[in-house]
Amino acid sequence: MTRRELDLERARKVLRVLIGLTGLSRREVQRRLQSQGSVTDVTRILRGKLDLKLRHILDIIEVLDVQAFEFFQMAFPPPPRSRPSPVFEMLESTLAPDRPDLFRSSQTSPEPGDEEQLRHQKSELMRRFEQLISEVERREK
User: Fold this and answer.
1) pTM here?
2) How far are the Cα atoms of 17, 27, 35, 56, 60 from residue 89, in angstroms, in the given order?
3) Domains contained in the chain, number
4) Which one, 37, 54, 58, 141, has least CB within 10 Å?
5) Both 2 and 53 in a single domain?
């Protein structure tokens, strides 16, 4: 599988988990999408039979009452201690030269002793999230 295919599968898994967590059936999600005028076929998208597009993600998470940034943070969490890409740094320096933190997380930096605890908490949350994904996949089989 290519990196792109793996990313798309990860996004599908996150959608499946979110649907499972809401307690809504796929049929109910589909019904709500149709009532909003969307032609998104939830089952075919989640099974990988239909290409997943941004509009599909946005339609589905709107029905689930999940914010886009929340979805993308779950689906594509930043690697630990990652540096912004050169393009992102150029964007920051061009659009907000006096506010280099404008596009970054608004959270304050943790105290030095708290960093390890935060890493542990993040690791634990990601482990639990992976367990949820696995549980949803088992139920689907």
Assistant:
1) 0.68
2) 33, 43, 42, 30, 31
3) 3
4) 141
5) yes
Q: Taking a C-beta distance cutoff of 8 angstroms, is the pair 7, 13 a contact?
A: no
Q: Where are the beta strands (DSSP E) in the chain?
A: none
Query: How confident is the model over 96-132, as pLDDT tens digits?
Result: 666 656 556 544 555 556 767 766 666 677 777 777 7
Mark whether 71 and 122 lie in a shared domain: no
* 36 Cβ contact partners less than 8 Å away, ≥ 6 residues apart: 59, 62, 63
The reply to whether 61 and 72 lie within a common domain is: yes
* Distance, CA of 68 to CA of 1 (rounded, Å): 26
Q: What's residue 99's pLDDT?
A: 63
Contacts of residue 25, Cβ cutoff 8 Å, sequence gap at least 6: none
Q: How far apart are CA 84 and CA 88, in angstroms?
A: 6
Chain segment 88-100, per-residue pLDDT in tens: 777 777 776 666 5
CB of 14 closer than 8 Å to CB of 138 = no
Q: Looking at residue 83, what is its pLDDT?
A: 77
